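To illustrate the input format used throughout this study, we show a single complete record. The first block contains the structure-token representation of the backbone; no residue identities are included at this stage. The design step must infer an amino acid for every position from geometry alone.
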């Protein structure tokens, strides 16, 4: 088996068709790229116990989004190690380990959800699955650059295109699996009939002479699955997310393992028929080096750290939005446009985010072959900053005057943002190859992906913390407009108990809006305004870093 997985055993014969390699790369990236559909899991994970709505002991948005963050952190860390390891053992061994880790991550995560043990979900999906992400991510990049030295941008676009499109298949697949495993919670009746009471910031009801913990669903909290307002028993039913995790682990293993085993490498002296390396059709020819730089030597150059900063800030700006896409579109538009922004609409939005991510990786990376990497990144950062600042404009406008046009504008803005986010990922390996040569680009790329780990923490924590702060402030302001007597009747305690009720998920923005004066504007749309302004600032700094990038000094070249 060592020989079967060795790098020497996968050298392709002389007349091997190089176009047989991209399908395997895309297949693996489509599987691991489903991480970008994580937002489909957020809501079900936040109500594993309550099922209908969140119960006091259910996980918060910050906790569930932290699982996604952990996976991204370990993606970058494992990629940093795997890049150099892959140069030694080859992509077949690395891809096989990636398939096993990604599948086992889902299975361990499913056990954690079933047992309601958050640490096990973090260990499974976050750590083990994150390692699978990193190994699977780097395995095709340097492979395709070697097969397509004449089209570096297009090659990296193909290599990473599947990762951006993973949510396109993953979102509906995950949604259908959760629907298959879903079981409705026990319904007790209307609030008036059941008469639940509050004790220690929890809601209870008497059922057949015994006390059971319950959650209440208001008219503003109905969904495609919960269509009747009233009282439901905590701990009954299932959101279906645990069963979906178990099934996904098996599905992804079946797809990824054969793809990893089909990897091939070109012979060391191979080059495409009719290709002359001295002829480069790019207008940015001065930025493309004909020399190679070693992995450790690359880390001694300012160019590496400038690209690291660019990638980190670009990812930090986009990764939180992608990871919480379903939550964001529902928060901003479900209140003003409830008939349009349904659960199905939000899930389709996640799918379209994936399409934009995937197409952006191929189109922008291919375009960089003609315009140059530096020019493309300038477009990403300057245009992207303007687009991020446009999101709060749409959110504020639709909350004041509900109109489909604002939703359409938001849709177009975020699709373009995500296309450039994906294009940044796809173009960075070609940028590295231009500056450091192709010989060790896989290892250098792996080291650079530590920026992804850092950005995963910055982006997701920024979005989660700013959202929770804005949410708490919004509920406090709403409560100030509510009659204290009406609040006491609704929740069974005085309004000064609001902080404890918020912490236990008893009070939510939709429940407070039911008590607010007519004409009160839903504040959910403003939860992300400060986040978007900060993201625009990130891209402005990245634009400055890109401006300083210059060719690598000759003293770092091998055999200079």
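Output of the design step:
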């Amino acid at each position: 088996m060592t020989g079967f997985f060795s790098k020497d055993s996968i050298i392709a014969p002389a007349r091997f068709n190089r176009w047989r390699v991209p399908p395997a790369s895309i297949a693996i990236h489509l599987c691991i790229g489903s991480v970008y559909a994580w937002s489909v899991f957020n809501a079900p994970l936040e109500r594993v116990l309550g099922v209908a709505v969140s119960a006091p002991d259910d996980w918060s948005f910050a906790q569930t989004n932290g699982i996604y963050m952990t996976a991204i952190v370990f993606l970058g860390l494992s990629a940093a190690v795997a890049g150099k390891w892959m140069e030694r053992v080859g992509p077949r061994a690395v891809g096989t380990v990636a398939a096993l880790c990604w599948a086992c991550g889902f299975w361990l995560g499913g056990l954690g959800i079933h047992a309601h043990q958050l640490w096990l979900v973090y260990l499974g999906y976050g750590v083990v699955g994150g390692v699978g992400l990193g190994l699977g991510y780097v395995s095709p990049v340097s492979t395709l650059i070697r097969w397509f030295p004449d089209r570096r941008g297009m090659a990296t676009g193909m290599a990473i295109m599947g990762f951006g499109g993973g949510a396109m298949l993953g979102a509906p697949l995950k949604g259908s699996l959760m629907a298959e495993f879903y079981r409705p919670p026990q319904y007790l009746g209307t609030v008036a009939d059941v008469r639940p009471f509050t004790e220690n910031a929890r809601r209870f009801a008497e059922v057949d002479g015994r006390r059971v913990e319950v959650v209440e669903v208001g008219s503003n909290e109905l969904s495609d699955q919960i269509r009747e307002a009233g009282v439901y028993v905590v701990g009954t039913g299932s959101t279906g997310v645990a069963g979906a995790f178990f099934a996904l682990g098996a599905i992804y293993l079946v797809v990824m393992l054969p793809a990893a085993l089909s990897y091939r490498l070109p012979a060391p002296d191979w080059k495409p028929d009719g290709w002359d390396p001295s002829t480069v059709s790019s207008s940015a020819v001065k930025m493309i080096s004909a020399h190679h730089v070693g992995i450790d030597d690359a880390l001694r150059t300012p160019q590496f750290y400038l690209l690291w900063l660019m990638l980190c800030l670009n990812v930090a700006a986009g990764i939180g939005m992608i990871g919480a896409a379903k939550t964001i579109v529902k928060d901003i538009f479900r209140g003003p446009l409830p008939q349009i922004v349904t659960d199905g609409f939000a899930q389709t939005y996640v799918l379209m985010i994936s399409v934009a991510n995937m197409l952006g990786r191929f189109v922008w990376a291919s375009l960089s072959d003609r315009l140059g990497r530096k020019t493309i990144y300038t477009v990403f950062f300057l245009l992207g900053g303007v687009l991020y600042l446009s999101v709060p404009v749409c959110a504020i406008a639709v909350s004041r005057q509900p109109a489909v046009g604002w939703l359409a504008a938001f849709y177009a803005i975020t699709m373009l943002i995500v296309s450039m986010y994906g294009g940044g990922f796809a173009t960075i390996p070609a940028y590295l190859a231009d500056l450091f040569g192709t010989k060790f680009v896989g290892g250098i790329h792996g080291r650079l992906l530590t920026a992804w780990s850092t950005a995963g923490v910055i982006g997701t924590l920024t979005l989660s913390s700013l959202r929770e702060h804005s949410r708490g402030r919004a509920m406090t302001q709403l409560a100030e407009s509510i009659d204290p007597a009406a609040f006491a009747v609704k929740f069974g305690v005085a309004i000064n108990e609001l902080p404890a009720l918020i912490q236990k998920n008893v009070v939510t923005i939709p429940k407070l809006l039911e008590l607010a004066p007519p004409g009160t504007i839903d504040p959910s749309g403003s939860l992300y305004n400060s986040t978007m302004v900060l993201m625009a600032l990130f891209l402005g700094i990245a634009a400055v870093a890109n401006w300083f990038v210059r060719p690598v000094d000759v003293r770092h070249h091998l055999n200079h």
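Structural context for interpreting the output: The chain has one domain: 15-183+238-268+290-481+520-556. The longest helix spans residues 404-436.
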